[in-house]
Q: What sequence folds into this?
């Protein structure tokens, strides 16, 4: 059974940084396009960043230049480095394949940015 477990969230002041991790089991993330998603209170889940099998990355305009998606194939883990955080980045962050598969959604990790 595929499991994607997010961690690394927390409370941070505006301008601060966090690094999220996505530990995968029963799926080789190096063989799949993967993505980070987020859902803010009262809003739909949105795509934040993607990484292809070849390592190409893409970002939502709202996070471009501040967030970096990466993966460690040996650890089968994906990361999201978030710098210069803003209050509007407050959300639950999830990892999944890209596009996301319903069965793979995990619990997410809460990121709260205070002003």
A:
């Amino acid at each position: 059974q595929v499991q994607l477990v997010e961690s690394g969230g927390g409370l941070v002041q505006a301008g601060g940084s966090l690094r999220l991790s996505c530990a995968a089991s029963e799926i080789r993330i190096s063989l799949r396009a993967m993505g980070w998603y987020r859902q803010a209170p009262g809003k739909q889940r949105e795509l934040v960043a993607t990484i292809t099998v070849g390592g190409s990355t893409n970002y939502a305009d709202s996070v471009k230049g501040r967030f970096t998606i990466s993966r460690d194939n040996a650890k089968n883990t994906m990361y999201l480095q978030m710098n210069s955080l803003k209050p509007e980045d407050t959300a639950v962050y999830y990892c999944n394949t890209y596009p996301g598969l319903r069965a793979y959604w995990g619990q997410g990790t809460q990121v709260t940015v205070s002003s």
Observations:
- The mean pLDDT is 97.
- The radius of gyration is 13 Å.
- The beta strands are 3-7, 10-13, 18-25, 34-39, 46-51, 57-59, 67-72, 77-82, 91-97, 109-114.
